[in-house]
User: What shape does this take?
Amino acid sequence: MFYSRGVCWSSGCEKQGDVSPVENHIHCDEGQPQTEEGSEAACPGISIVTDGFADSAPGDVSGGPASCEGEEHTHLDSQDTHLDSEDAHLDSEHTHLSAEQALDSASGEESQEDSGEFVAAMLARSRLEEQGLGVKGGSPPLADTGPSPPPPGLHRDEDVTADAWRAHRKHVFVLSEAGKPIYSRYGSEEALSSTMGVMMALVSFVQSGDNTIRSVHSDQHTVVFMQQGPLVLVSVSSSGQSEQQLRHELRYVYNQIVSMLTQASIARIFQHKKNYDLRRLLAGSEKILDGLLDLLDCDPSFLLSAVHCMPLASSLRDALSHVLQKAITPNLVFSILIAQGQLVTIVQERTVIEDARLEPADLHLLLNLIGASSAFQAGEIWTPICLPSFNPDCYFYAYISYLDPPSCSVCLLLLSTDKEAFYAVAECKRKIEEAMLAQNALAALAKARPYSATQVGVSDLRHFMYKPFDVPDNHRQLTQFTSPEMESPYSSEAEKTRLLDLYRDLHGRIHSTSRPLKLIYHVAERETLLAWVTSKFELYTCFSPLVTKASSINAITKLLRWIKKEEERLFIRYPPKYSTTPNPSRTRKAPEHDATDNGFLSLL
Amino acid sequence: MAIIRELKVCLLGDTGVGKSSIVCRFVQDHFDHNISPTIGASFLTKTVPCGNELHKFLIWDTAGQERFHSLAPMYYRGSAAAVIVYDITKLDSFQTLKKWVKELKEHGPENIVVAIAGNKNDLGDIREVPMKEAKDFAESIAAIFIETSARNAVNVEELFQKISRQIPPLENPEVDSNESFKLTRQAAPSSRRCC
Assistant: This one.
């Protein structure tokens, strides 16, 4: 439910405005909307953040609520018909807006406030109507936690009118510019077509004023909009994450779609036919998007934009890298070995990474693809795949095969630029398989385990995430982080989520665009956290609640010393390379373990 | 000592008709109720005896989803046989099958052995495609026809046996008079094409 007590439009600023509460027109039967506990009193209600054009500063909204109240009621009455005619409403609303602005320049903010409230009301109303409850039906607000969400796997069949649907922590919708549903995390897209229609109406309404809608903030929810070419992505979240983080997640969703279709072909399709139903092309891939959204919630790699590699004795990792380096064929660009869903090693084509580096984001998409589908467990897979951060418009061809059927925990991924190279690449796999068998590497990999925070030997340290910027070569070529297993008291799903939420909050504050921080010492109810960013690393630590500031700093010193000592095991220190391109003229004749270029450090 | 012949076979057809299930039943004799949609194409092999030869099937199990459609030529090119699968409970999948037949006729290898498999034969009570209609269609294009059930392991082996029998033996290519089985120059080398 979107409480509508005040609306502000701010220009290009992500801060919420300081607005006076306006009476809530939308759910009149619900009684007083509650103020979220602990929320700053300065920013109650809904605020809508857009990209530009409004001259007002965020705090400028000073128009008396009473003066716009009358208008509000009129709007609501005029909306009281059907959603089908929303376009007409929007048009008339727009006309009304300009007229009012022309008439009374002093109340310019007010009119924007009006329109903001109007769109927010539209969104809220449409939800209610869709749920068949109607505005006057006394519906429970979205935030009211009803029955717990249904078990995973049944997302498609979920009843979108049920309380459980509304109670989901985070919804993600993807739609086309024509308002056609493409994807919804929960519930079927068909059932949500009118909700998505309203979302598109919001986007186009703001667009018609030469502006871009970025987000809508209410007490309980943050709605983030992102337009990418002909696609619109919307996140409706009650997770408390920052707008920036939610936008980052939407970008992953977009990139996952691009990885299947390429940006160029999405653009071409919609250029050709504006109301194309993209679900036709994504059919069967919903699981991959579902899997991505699950990972976004539970895997900090996405938050940190870094790769988590499997802790492994450096001798074993080097031996495996060497095996991959030996098994090459022309046009092979990346050889990736994955065990238990984590990166073991990656070998990259030298000339290719001179042009563009393999972003952790792309690697995350690949890992998700493999983890989300059991389709790879049968036979050898050959499939086109696009790496959006590398090049959003072209395909690589991926060879994917598990090396240890039927347990399927060690997966080999070979990427080629040649569509026809399957048999040659499959031959590389045979060589790799043989060499690994000779070294008994599968058995060694099966023994690899995540480590425990207790191994650090610092009492009170429960968990941490460490992302270095100074491990030779690896930040520039492959950004990594390391983190122990989440153990008691964070072994249950709920507690894991709670810890990650705390980390997300710290991360959001560290990376805040308006007021970035370097060091946060946060005493929470059940633990104490310390986040610290320097030019050499980004670190998040979680301690038991009894720790003191001094002892936690002391603990971090010990932790950093331990990580330094274990560096070889925790990280891929020198991402190995090979040359497979037939044209050696562009190849830089560098030694394999080229650690001389640490120039990136000076950039930090 | 039997001769091993490698036969490239591709499976085509609408999404969800059971191509992967048929292959899984044939290769691993296993059935998975919650099988994931194939991504790209999956390559599997199985060797079966046929007369005095051993036929090693190099099976390309393609994804039925539309977005992979443009890749299909890569898989049926050089194939000795194509199995086009439809779902007997979905009329649409039979229409898609006709499109595949047309595409193979236009762009496929000229002497490719075509087999039509009506899968989900165990769901006879919700059948939408009459057996006769499919059989008549198969006859009209001189294709193998069989109804299968990957779930109950019905006719899956038989499907591949029929294909095996339609592949002319190496030593005596003129054995069959039917023109669609005539061994032309490309067939033998292409069917053995592998690494």
